[in-house]
Design goal:
Layout: H1 26-33, H2 36-59, H3 77-90, H4 125-134, H5 153-165, E1 172-181, E2 189-191, E3 199-208, E4 214-219, H6 233-242, E5 251-254
Parallel strand pairs: 1-5
Antiparallel strand pairs: 1-3, 2-3, 3-4
Helix pairs in contact: 2-3
Length: about 260
């Protein structure tokens, strides 16, 4: 197999802003991929869903006089960042305390010394619960029931765009499947016997062959996946992942 060695240097370039190359703060790189556009979008969709839900409850007569929902105020990107950070933080806390009691999210605001965290310094419990109720990634009214990933599709597309934006793909790329560990209930959860993580969500990734940097990801969600006419579903996924590298003198590796 032959490929152009004279253009090899162009594949080593990246587009990372100069100031980030001189810093060591991890959060700077998080915000490189989860940029302000991302956070503003989450705030916009959360506000929209809250408004839709409140109107629906009013129309059906289900909005009680003293309902906490009536205290809803529109959120913003900064508050969504705080909410997201606290949700991630809860994943680092054991779900069973020293007394053997099941630990629930609201316990993070408890005055009990066994449960005490500093969550209350960032957001009040009732506000966190409201955000947790209305947090949303897509407008339900736009759902045409043709895409099982509709709820996360806009965010997934944004992430795929940002992954490619800041790192040029190597000359040799690899496409393979991976399992994202997931123990919840979802109809396209997969079992793959020969993977280290056997149960989860199957995804197809296109990555640099050397440093394994991911340039694109497609989640497998079964028979309803989009496919290119004349090709199988798996072949269609590979074509979509690699289409932006056509005629770019790159080599694509994959197993059978």
């Amino acid at each position: 197999m032959k490929y152009r060695m004279d253009v090899d240097e162009t594949f080593k370039l990246n587009n990372i802003p100069e100031h980030l190359k001189k810093t060591s703060e991890p959060i700077d790189f998080v915000y490189l991929f989860l940029d302000e556009t991302y956070w503003e979008y989450l705030a916009e969709q959360t506000n929209l869903y809250a408004q839709q839900s409140i109107i629906e409850m009013q129309n059906k007569g289900k909005l009680k006089p003293f309902s906490r929902v009536k205290a809803w105020k529109n959120t913003n990107s900064q508050e969504i960042k705080i909410y997201s950070a606290l949700v991630l933080w809860t994943g680092l806390i054991s779900n069973i305390d020293l007394k053997g009691k099941i630990f629930i999210i609201s316990d993070n605001w408890s005055k009990d010394k066994l449960h005490e965290t500093n969550f209350k310094e960032y957001i009040k419990l009732y506000r966190f619960q409201l955000l947790h109720r209305f947090f949303h990634l897509a407008n339900n009214l736009d759902d045409k029931k043709t895409d099982d990933l509709f709820k996360i599709r806009p965010v997934l597309d944004l992430m795929n765009s940002n992954w490619s934006k800041y790192n040029n793909a190597d000359q040799i790329l690899s496409v393979d499947e991976a399992i994202i560990k997931y123990n919840g209930r979802i109809k396209f959860r997969q079992y793959i016997m020969n993977k280290p993580v056997k149960w989860g969500i199957k995804a197809f990734l296109i990555c640099n062959s050397l440093d394994r940097y991911c340039h694109g990801l497609e989640i497998y969600y079964g028979k309803n996946m989009m496919f290119t006419e004349g090709f199988s579903k798996t072949e269609s996924v590979v074509i979509r992942l690699a289409e932006k590298y056509v005629n770019s003198y790159r080599v694509l590796l994959m197993d059978s």
